Amino acid sequence: MATIKIQRTNEYKNRFRAVKILIDGKQIDTIANGETKEFTTAEGQHKIQAKIDWCSSPDILVILNDNEVKNLQIGSSTKNDWVTTLPFVLLIIVLHFILSKFFNFHYTGLLLIPTFLMMIYQLSIGRKNYLTLNEDNYGIR
Known about the structure:
alpha+beta; Immunoglobulin-like
């Protein structure tokens, strides 16, 4: 039997949500934030995917030999998007306040449109790339 060892990164964004692990289209288990789990499976070719709510990772194809261990790592593809988005939104709000109060200019709120479009993209078209599932060539640490 071959073994697939999956490590989930420790991240703030999805801390309280479990990630479902699918092997060959069947859910075999869930994995919590920062957790590492091992799954035994038959040797050969397997399609592995991670899902969280309606979002997922792209499928990854793993070929296993007998008694082989494959190390995979799951994480969010948008790890720190709130860290970069929040200051941008706050900057736009402050800029809007200054420009509207002192210069009678009321259109700076339109600069928030790209931020909202990115959020809509992540929840619709980009939902199949919300998680990353990669082979960890250095082994589970």
